[in-house]
Amino acid sequence: MYNNTITLTNSSTNSYGYLWKFGDDSTSTDTNPKHTYSYGGVFTISLIALNPCGNDTIRKTINFSCSPPTASFYPTSSNLDVSVVNYSAGATSYSWDFGDGFKSASSLPKHTYYASGTYTVCLTVSNGCGTASICSNITVTCAVPTANFSLSLNGLTAYYNNQSFNAANVM
Asked: I need a labelling partner for 110 at 20 to 30 A (CA). Which of 32, 94, 127, 150 fits?
């Protein structure tokens, strides 16, 4: 959603009721409403003040400029783990596709692949003014673990120190 929120102040007199029209098919009967426009543009706001003797209408025009978002990111990987630096601008929602069935709506997702390979990571960003997409290939490799430990003895007690790396867990 493109965030253009306005707060309106009603200075009508002799009124028993109000009808606000925001120019985007939304209305309110609040005395001093807040309204958020979900997209940019030129809008005519109308206030109709009512009482048993009749009504009076006033109109004012507002202009919210609107720009579509830009999509940009840089992926980094370590073994099968991928993280991204998101350089997108003006986005209010994010949709990631990591090319292996995993999807995310986070602005800064992390993902672990299950197998080595080259995957296409796509980002689609949007706001009330538009959508932009970008894709980038990333190659991940599954590193073979290296098993290693040190051993020290103290009498009949043995102390093991795991020095393995690239291992998910130790058995």
From this structure: 127
Phi-psi bin for 99: left (phi > 0), alpha (psi -120 to 50), beta? Answer: left
Q: 156-162, long-range: CB within 8 Å, 24+ apart, which pairs?
A: none
List the beta bridge partners of residue 36.
5
What are 104-158's pLDDT values in tens digits? Answer: 999 999 999 999 999 999 999 998 788 999 999 999 998 788 888 888 888 888 8
In the three-class reduction of DSSP (H, G, I as helix; E, B as strand; rest coil), residue 103 is classed as strand
Distances (CA, A) of 160 to 147, 150, 153, 164, 167: 13, 6, 9, 12, 17
Do residues 147 and 163 lie in contact, with contact meaning Cβ atoms separated by under 8 Å?
A: no
